[in-house]
Amino acid sequence: MPSSVRVFQAERPIAGRAVLQITPRLDSGGAERTTLEIVQALVQAGARALVATEGGRLVGELQALGGEFHRFPAATKNPVAMAGNARKLAALIAREGVDIVHARSRAPAWSARAAAQKRGIPFVTTYHGVYSARSAIKSRYNSVMAMGDCVIANSLFTARHIVERYPFAAGRIATIHRGVDLRLFDPQAVSPDRVRALREKWGAPPDQRIVLMPARLARRKGHRVLIRAARILADSGRGDLTFVLAGEEERDAYPRELDRFAESAGVSGLVKRVGHCEDMPAALLSAACVVAPAIEPEAFGRIAVEGQAMGAPVVASDLGASSETIHAPPECPPGQRTGWLVPPDDPQALADSIAEALDLNAAARDALALRARRRAAELFSVERMCEATLRVYENLLEQNPTG
Predict the structure, then answer these.
(1) Which whole-number Å values give the CA distances from 93 to 58, 116, 129, in the listed order?
(2) Residues contacting 204, CB < 8 A, separation 6+
(3) Strand blocks (E) in 85-234
(4) What's the rounded Cα separation, in Å, for the pair 58 and 354?
(5) What radius of gyration, in Å, describes the C-alpha atoms of the chain?
(6) In what order do the strands lie in the sheet with 18-22?
(7) Residue 25: helix, strand or coil by DSSP?
(8) 200-222: per-residue pLDDT in tens?
(9) How far, rounded to the nearest angstrom, does the alpha carbon of residue 251 sit from its chain's CA centroid?
(10) How far is it, in rounded angstroms, from Cα 17 to Cα 21?
(11) Per residue in 15-37, is it b (16+ CB within 10 Å) or e — as a string?
(12) Fewer CB within 10 A of the terminal residue: the chain, N end or C end?
């Protein structure tokens, strides 16, 4: 779904310059969406926006926004291929007159860094996630994301993680929270027909309330915790709930494992696995409650912000950056909350908070939605994110005028 960012004045230092972003693929996810939002911001500011990637379902949208698609084997982790990629990128930089290279993933970042150094231009990285490092080799592999001339952290939690793991990056970190397009994620912008069509596609009857978990089907996201909470809620007499798992499926056995787990928990008839959803605003508006029960820290938590922007009650694990995106007790009085934070891997706490969210009366739910949307607009708008990122580019260009 195309974005609709409109925030940039005509003449600014980035105008006429070329920025190359590199990411493995353009399919779905926070990094991919951010790539496109920065493309649009660059184009609106009068700059060229190039993306080197293997391809993906979002390439058409990239080109519709005015971005330039360069097919590139950016996902490879083969050291020999990565060295070859560095040479190819250096040639692309020279040919297209690229002024800045911005890497959004580790494997292509090594090639991008080498190419940027060869051409003498600034190199930017964005930490979109908190990478595991169970060995010295893996820690070294991850370290490239801390080697940018500017290292963008997508939350304060991520910034602290970078400094703890790679102290040498401390003076080059810019914290820029992930942005949400509040023109797209606006309850008033979603027609009832869109919500109705999605519910019909999912097989959710009108008399059923949807508890929505919009997340890639990966173990760290905590789907099993929700399934166990579904059992608790069903046992408490809540028979009007449908639990929808909406997200990209990994190419492994995990989706089938979830099906078997739901069956063993006796809730296979309540839990629906619906795959990737193209219309997330309608999905979130259809939900009586949105959940993000991750069992590993989330570097940002885009779904929590998008859910709040749509006015949905959101329940998330109190891990990683969740306390930055959701305002909840004990950090605020209950009447000022914008969602719920629960201990990770605690199905009872998750079920209790879902029940509390579902039991809100109309006035309380409306007040919660107003607070949540206001917070999203103040702290997590895509305009705010794009403006801060363009300032990073412009500051680097000022420091490197001959690049």
Answers:
(1) 23, 8, 27
(2) 210, 242, 244, 272, 286
(3) 100-103, 123-127, 150-153, 173-175, 209-214
(4) 33
(5) 22
(6) 68-71, 48-53, 18-22, 100-103, 123-127, 150-153, 173-175
(7) coil
(8) 999 999 999 999 999 989 999 99
(9) 20
(10) 13
(11) eebbbbbbbbbbbbbbbbbbbbb
(12) N
Q: What is the pLDDT of residue 403?
A: 54
d(CA 298, CA 362) in angstroms, rounded, equals 31
Residue-wise DSSP of 1-59: ---------S--TTTT-EEEEE-S--SSSHHHHHHHHHHHHHHHTT-EEEEEES--TTH
Structure tokens, 108: 């292509």
Q: How far apart are CA 351 and CA 367, in angstroms?
A: 22
Assess contact for 244 and 215: CB atoms under 8 A: no
In the predicted structure, residue 6 carries a pLDDT above the cut 70: no
Burial class (CB in 10 A: 0-12, 13-18, 19+), 274: middle
Locate 87 and state its tokens. Answer: 């040479």
Question: Is 325:303 a contact under the CB 8 Å cutoff?
Answer: no
CB 56 within 8 A of CB 62: no
DSSP for residue 180: B
E-only strand ranges, 61-198: 68-71, 100-103, 123-127, 150-153, 173-175
Q: What pLDDT, on the 0 to 100 scale, is given for residue 5? A: 54
Query: What are the pLDDT digits (tens) for 219-275?
Result: 999 999 999 999 999 999 998 999 999 998 877 899 999 999 999 999 999 999 999
Residue 164: count of CB within 10 angstroms of its CB: 8
Q: How far apart are CA 125 and CA 174, in angstroms?
A: 10
Residue 149: the pLDDT is: 97
- Please report how the helices 106-119 and 79-96 are oriented relative to each other, as an axis angle in degrees rounded to 10: 50
Strands 287-292 and 18-22: unpaired
Residue of 384, 273, 285, 281 lying closest to 37 (CA atoms) = 384
Phi, psi of 84 (to 5 degrees): -65, -35
How large a percentage of the chain has pLDDT more than 70? Answer: 97
Between the two ends of the chain, the Cα-to-Cα distance in Å is 35
